Structure formats: structure tokens, C-alpha cells
Amino acid sequence: MAKRDYYDVLGVAKGASPEEIKKAYRTKAKELHPDRNKDDPKAEAAFKDVNEAYDCLKDEQKKAAYDRFGHAAFDGGMGAARGGAGGFRGQQDFASAFSDVFDDLFGDFMGGRGGTAGRSRATRGNDLRYNLRISLEEAFKGLQKTVTVPTAVTCGACDGSGAEGGSEPVTCPTCSGMGKVRAQQGFFTVERTCPTCNGLGQTIKNPCKTCHGAGRVEKEKQLSVNIPAGVETGTRIRLAGEGEAGLRGGPTGDLYIFIEVREHALFQREGTNLFCKVPVSMVTAALGGDIEVPTIDGGKARVKIPEGSQAGRQMRLRGKGMPAIRARDVGDMFIELSVETPVNLTGRQKDLLREFEKISAENNPQSSSFFSSVRNFWDSMKG
């Protein structure tokens, strides 16, 4: 069966430029790739025809021979897809051709490979993290805080270029500026970071004596951070461009301030609400009364204890909690009563309590209800 014309296979005219041929090949290879046409048994053969055509037409010498003699130019084992002594060479050419379409299919997903000699020498600096501990009172009010951050800044001696005396980096001879090198292993092309330039694509013959070619130096930097009112543990504040300087003039990273609010001796926080456990005497809980409680703003609030209050009872003070971050809402404060049992009683106090217990059995409804339920439980178990 006669072979199809290579130009027809790629869908280009005979006088097409190398750029047009390469573009047509990539389009066809994407369209006919077996992974995209698993249900089409003819796709693999068509895909091989496209690669064979491109392998010929991308090479100036092969293309000139093909234009003059057609397929007859490669009879006798000279073709890229022939067996014998030319077989391994053909496999290499196919893998090289396939790597071009692999770049298009997966290059964006893998972060790209850069242009021709043009992988950018500049690398973005790292983001930094700073853990900042503040008090609950500071979280309530908000504050300006000055922090000292160890970081890497642009080298002033070489303006971040990494080169001494205004000289410029040169294209890496190992990877030709790509930042990566490829090794052929049969059908596959293995790619790894260039060991000479560490992926930068360029090398410096005369490195800066201050930064030793990195384009940046270690330095502590003081920054003023605005902590808004209402922050809580886990709040993250981003300071754009305040991270590490990039390598060789690359863009600067960001600084992230992570907030941790210390535990408070009086208040427990849940979101915007505050909880405060207040001890009261048995007499106050029984007879009722007024008490003063602290508030997070440093003030006081008077709370009325109802007569007959039980331990654990909560009372709400509206608007006395924490502000919502970057909002006008304010939480509430909850007072929880802790009825305190007196200790170190005198003999007289003990006698009075015993006497009080004898005459107040009917005034303890919870106890009466509980022990009544206990008796019913035991009676049911006996039955």
C-alpha cells in the first residue's frame, strides 16, 4: 500500500514554513493521540503516520531529500521508521518528536518548560510565616504591632542580579537556558533539573562577592502589622511582598502573620461570645442579691442574682462580648454561677446548718425529686 504524502498527513502545503509544520504537527498529534481515542482502533496508526511525517519534515536535510525524491529518498533502511541499523535512531527521533507534543499536552499542568533559550533566570522568593501571640484584651481592641522578621532581601551590591561589577549572567551551556536536561531511555524521554544551573537556565561567571551569586542576602526586617479588633487564634494576615526576595531579581514572596490569642484568667471565648464563671455564696444563691462582674473592656457590670439560683445558672450580658472581625457585630457575655460551699466552719456554724437542714427539707425540690426517683428505681428492681 502506497504511503500518503507527508504534507497531506500533516495538512500543510509543500512550501510550508518550519513553524507552520510544527504547529500542524502539534494539532494533529493532540487530535490523534491514542489516549484521547481509546475507542478508535485506527487512531494509533494515524498517530504514528503523523510522527513519521513530522520527523522527516522538521529536519532540513530529510525535508530537502523528500521534496526532491519523495518516499524513495528513504528506501534501503534510511527512513526514520525503518528497522535494521536505523531502527534505534528512528525510535529516538520518534521520542524526540513525541516530547514536543507532550510539552503541549501537559506543559501547562506541570508548570511549563519555558521558551527556547528563554527560561527565566528570576525565581520568586519564598513566603514566610510569623507566629504572633497576643492577649485577649489586645484581640478585643485591636492594635499596631511591630515585628522583627528574619528574611532575605535583594542584594544592594549587585541589585539582585547576582553578578559582580554589572556583568550579566550567561545562558547555561548544559541545558541551553531551558533549566532542565533530557535523557533518552528507549521510547521515553526522562527530564530532570539541570545540575549546572539548578534549574535557573543561566550561570554566573563572575558572582557578586556580597551575595555569592544568589542576588539576595540574609537580613532582619522590622514591620508594623495592623491587628484588627476581633481576631482569634488561627486568623491569618497577609502582607504582600514582605516575604523573601526572589533569586536574581525575581519577585518577592509574601509574609503571613498567624495569630494566637493567649488563654485568659477570667474569660473563656467561643467565637464572639465570652463566658465568665462567678462564685457566689449559698446565702446569695438562696436569697438573691447583686454582684459586680468584670468586662473585657476593663469595666464592671452589675448583675442581679435571682432568689433560689442553682449552680450552673447562666445570665446574659448583651453586647459585652468580642467584636466580629471587620464587622459591626458584637457578641455577648455569659455569667455562669458557681455556688460555693463554705469550708473551715466553726462549731456554731455547723450547728446552725444542721438545724437549717432539718427545717428546710421541703425547700429542696431537686433533692426531693431525685430521691423519689431513686426509691421508685429500687422498688422496680425488687419487683
Going across the biggest sheet, name each strand in turn.
Answer: 10-11-15-14
Full CATH superfamily name of the largest domain? DnaJ domain
How many domain regions?
Answer: 4
Uncertain runs: 77-97, 104-120
Rg over CA atoms, rounded to whole Å, is 40 Å
Please count the helical segments: 9
Order of helices and strands: HHHHHEHEEEEEEEEEEHEEEEHH
Largest sheet: 4 strands, mixed
Mean pLDDT: 81
- Helix fraction bin: 25-40%
Q: Which shape, going by the Cα principal axes?
A: elongated
Report the count of strand segments. 15
Determine the CATH topology of the largest domain: Helix Hairpins
Tell me the layout of helices and strands:
Elements lengths: L5 H5 L7 H15 L10 H15 L2 H10 L17 H20 L21 E7 L1 H6 L1 E12 L15 E2 L8 E6 L2 E6 L8 E2 L12 E12 L8 E4 L15 E7 L6 E3 L2 E9 H6 L1 E6 L5 E6 L8 E4 L15 E8 L6 H13 L5 H18 L1
Parallel strand pairs: 1-9, 11-15
Antiparallel strand pairs: 2-7, 3-6, 4-5, 8-9, 10-11, 12-13, 14-15
Helix pairs in contact: 2-3, 2-5, 3-5
Index terms:
383 residues, elongated, DNA replication, DnaJ, Helix Hairpins, HSP40/DNAj peptide-binding domain, 9 helices, alpha+beta, three-stranded mixed beta sheet, HSP_DnaJ_Cys-rich_dom_sf, 28% helix, 15 strands, single chain
